[in-house]
TrEMBL record:
This is Gamma-glutamylcyclotransferase family protein. Residues 5-133 form the Gamma-glutamylcyclotransferase AIG2-like domain. It comes from Streptomyces yaanensis. Signal peptide: none annotated. It comes from the Bacteria.
Length: 136
């Protein structure tokens, strides 16, 4: 599936990984929201953890068709996401995200892997409001 990506941390415009990974590889970037998740500090980068009642702020990023495969592989490496590997920090999952116009879009989202999510729920630092750029 060639889905857009929902990015919520260091891949957002103005953050250091945006230029390294996304500049020149996208056809569009627009504000979006991920319902059913909360945000935790990594530290230095965030983790989205699926949880009812929360919302995470980010961007919906559509890759250029010719850059899609390379970008997907690069983001999996960046997020330490190896499908099926329990040592991965993140899992890439398809989720419905809300676009700025109120419509929904199915997108890839990197969420905390189960072991990481359990650790964060037990003793992580929650980012109130779910917006990495507005954290204190």
């Amino acid at each position: 599936m060639r889905l857009p990506f929902f990015v919520y941390g260091t891949l957002r415009p103005g953050e250091h990984n945006h230029d390294l990974f996304l500049r020149g590889r996208t056809s569009s970037e627009e504000p979006g929201l991920l319902p059913g998740a909360v945000l935790y500090d990594g530290p230095g980068y965030p983790y989205a953890v699926e949880e009812d009642g929360g919302t995470v702020t980010g961007e919906i990023v559509t890759a250029l068709p010719e850059a899609y495969g390379e970008l997907l592989a690069a983001l999996d490496r960046l997020e330490d996401c190896v499908p099926g590997d329990p040592r991965s920090l993140y899992e890439r999952v398809a989720r419905e995200v809300t676009a700025a116009d109120g419509g929904t879009v199915r997108a890839w989202v990197y969420v905390a892997a189960p072991a990481v999510a359990a650790r964060l729920r037990a003793r992580g630092k929650l980012i109130e409001g779910g917006d990495w750029l507005a954290r204190s």
